Amino acid sequence: MSDLDPFKVFLELQLALPRNGPGSRRATEAALTLLPPLPDDAQILDIGCGQGASAFDLLRLTKARITAVDLYDVFLEKMNARASREGIGDDRLVIKQADMEALPFHEGDFDLIWSEGAIYLVGFARGLKLWRRFLKPDGHAAVTECTWLTDNPPEEARAFWDAAYPQMGTIASNVAAAERAGYEVIGTQVLPPQDWWTDYYTPMREKIAEMRESWGDEIEPVLAEADAEIALFENNPGQYSYVFYVMRRKG
After folding, report:
1. What is the pLDDT of residues 29-63, one digit of tens each?
2. In what order do the strands lie in the sheet with 65-70?
3. What CATH number labels 25-192+237-249?
4. Region 123-146: what's the mean pLDDT?
5. Sequence-ordered list of residues with C-beta below 8 angstroms from that of 246, at least 6 positions apart, any chain
6. Rounded to an integer, what distance in angstroms lies between the CA atom of residue 96 and that of residue 249?
7. pLDDT tens-place string over residues 7-26
8. Which terminus of the chain, N or C, has less C-beta within 10 A?
9. Which residues, 6+ apart, have CB-to-CB distance to 234 below 8 Å?
10. Residue 213: in which H helix or E strand, if any?
């Protein structure tokens, strides 16, 4: 491969997708139904928002003010452009560039923390511990985490995720980790296969084919890695998925 930055290739691939991870508006709405009603002036923090798919869903599903944060300005530029097109002002949506490990907020600023497909970047247990202080007493959190759905996955799947995300747990182990981090888990929801395909893997495959045509062999290692992840999910149905963990802060 040339001196081309693999991360720039990854970003180009991600910027072409409707969502930057498995999920759907249906899943976001279903997770919200597990929560008690939010006040009209609720403050929601969306961590690792990417291009804002979940944030824009939350705007339509609640009356809350959303603060959306991500580390990468290219995602936030697209999010700002969409907010402008849709006439969404900062009374409803605040977009900030920030590191999820060093968030610029205060104790008890938010009624609800939301994070879809991002907490793995710091680890499920560690992320919950880091973010808990930003919740009001008895505030809530809803996050998705890639999770084993079986205690005995096929060797192919185990080997891939042991290399890519060795901290990946089961629903039971993640619930226990959340409780140790100071939360009560009030519900879990497994994302169905269509939430991986419709807005994520299917358009990703289409973009991979387009990039192979236009770029050639120099980016093949990055695209082959993405292809392998898609094939793994396709070939190992029911072994793992993203799971929504809906929680209440204790104490």
Report:
1. 999 999 999 998 999 999 999 999 999 999 999 99
2. 93-97, 65-70, 43-47, 110-115, 135-148, 240-249, 183-190
3. 3.40.50.150
4. 98
5. 31, 34, 35, 140, 141, 142, 185, 186, 187, 188, 189
6. 24
7. 888 899 999 999 999 999 99
8. C
9. none
10. helix 202-215
The per-residue pLDDT for range 204-221, each reduced to its tens digit, is: 999 999 999 888 788 998
Residue 196 CB partners (closer than 8 Å, separation 6+): 22, 233, 241, 242
The CA distances from residue 188 to 7, 35, 144, in Å, are 32, 11, 9
What tokens appear for 82 in the block? 């969409």
Residue with tokens 């452009």: 81
Average pLDDT for 226-230: 96
Locate tokens 């938010």: which residue?
110
Q: Within the chain, how many helices (H) and strands (E) appear?
A: 10, 7
Query: Looking at the predicted structure, is the pLDDT value of residue 2 above 60?
Result: no
